[in-house]
Amino acid sequence: MAAPLRAVQVDPPAPPPPLPSRPRWAAPLGAWNALVLAAWLIGPFLAAGTARWSGGWFHLASAAIGLAAHQVWVARHNPALRQARRRPGPGTKGWDVAWNALVWPLFAAVALTAGADYRTHGATLPPLAGAAGLVVLAAGLALSASAMSVNPFFEGTVRLQRERDQRVIEVGPYRLIRHPGNLGLAVWAAASPLLLRSATAAWAAGAAVAWVVLRTALEDATLRRELPGYQGYCGRTRFRLVPGVW
Questions:
Q1: Does 30 map to a domain?
Q2: Which of 16, 32, 70, 140 is a Cys-bridge partner for 187, taking CB atoms 3.0 to 4.6 Å apart?
Q3: What is the pLDDT along the chain (246 residues), one digit of tens a residue?
Q4: What is the value of pTM for the model shown?
């Protein structure tokens, strides 16, 4: 006689960890960034005095297509990162909140400066500069996407992610430099005057790059103090932002 079948209890899968509580400054910062985005989209054409400025449209289209491809790549190779970046986590450094509030206005200022330059018939770069800008922009976004694909802790703000057991990442571009995401952002800023074909806008782009360099220095010092194993990683990967330079 066959043994009676016995019911096997299967434990339900553990629920995903809850998202961290939203800091008080997150909503104002989000609203501020939305205003900056509007200024980025509309402001350059107001500064140019016309919506028929081809350089402005070329810049917008290049950035939009590049960012869309960037998002698709990261979503495919590191899908969990989207949830981690959905809202700022606890313990974000106050200086990085200020940095995030100013970085996108600096990027917008590049296009605004180029628009004003167009209106006053300033120094216009040759058409070849636009093609070079596409190559530089693609390089910057590709580097950023590569870093985000291999780093599950690539959040939008600087903090020690204790609740996620943050650890040092040493694969992909992190084998060469310690902050490849920041380098990608700086390269994007450098590409913008070329896409806009404005020599004057290079001054604004230089300010954006300097802002990224400042954040890199502060972030690196924070990780040295707070992230276990990071000091040893600094000995293995010597350069913060530019191989052979710094």
A1: no
A2: 140
A3: 444 544 434 344 444 445 455 566 556 666 766 777 777 888 899 999 999 999 999 999 999 999 999 999 999 999 998 888 877 778 889 999 899 889 989 999 999 999 999 999 887 899 999 999 999 999 999 999 999 999 999 998 999 999 889 999 999 999 999 999 999 999 999 999 999 999 999 999 999 999 999 999 999 999 999 999 999 999 999 999 999 999
A4: 0.86
The 10 Å Cβ neighbour count of residue 64 is 11
Q: Would you say 181 and 148 are in contact if contact means Cβ atoms under 8 Å apart?
A: yes
Range of the domain at 210: 53-85+92-236
Sequence-separated (6 or more) residues with CB below 8 Å from residue 135: none
Counting the structural domains of the chain, the total is 1
The CATH number of residue 78's host domain is 1.20.120.1630
